[in-house]
Amino acid sequence: RTDELLTTAAFRGETERVRQMLAHGAHTAKGQAKTTALHWAVSMGHLEVAELLVEHRADLNSRAVDGESPLHVAAREGDAALVNYLLEAGANPSLCNNGGATALDLALSFADEEVEMIQSLRV
User: Fold this and answer.
1) How many domains in the chain?
2) CATH for 12
3) In a 10 Å sphere around its CB, with 0-12 CB exposed, 13-18 middle and 19+ buried, how is residue 63 labelled?
4) Residue 112's domain spans which residues?
């Protein structure tokens, strides 16, 4: 139950609540679909929450059901600040998701979509 509350607080970016829960022994382990609080914080762009979770030994290379690590999620979301932070913290950039894609593959895919969208929007 506490882990679910931690995951929800991470998803919502509730930094102080996450800090309090971690101080009282909440675990950063996997929740539903093997997704961790770190996955959720990263998916929502909550850098400060991600930093707190990593400081409390969240697994940087944990894999969700789809094989994605938090680094995959940050790359897919195009969040350069989180990608850089996770790499500096020790995330493994060589991990592949279930589709065989690394975080770099996802980042390149995201970049291609951005370029295509920008080109489409040019008048």
Assistant:
1) 1
2) 1.25.40.20
3) buried
4) 2-121
Cβ atoms of 53 and 45 closer than 8 Å: no
Computed from CA positions of residues 74, 80, 83, 85, in that sequence, does the dihedral angle turn out positive or negative? negative
CB 96 within 8 A of CB 102: yes
Mean per-residue pLDDT pooled into runs of 10, the chain (123 residues): 87 97 84 82 98 96 95 92 95 97 89 70 65
**HSE (side-chain half, CA atoms, 13 Å) at 104:** 5
Q: How many CB atoms neighbour CB 69 within 10 A?
A: 27
Integer Cα distance of 9 and 110 in angstroms = 27
pTM: 0.88
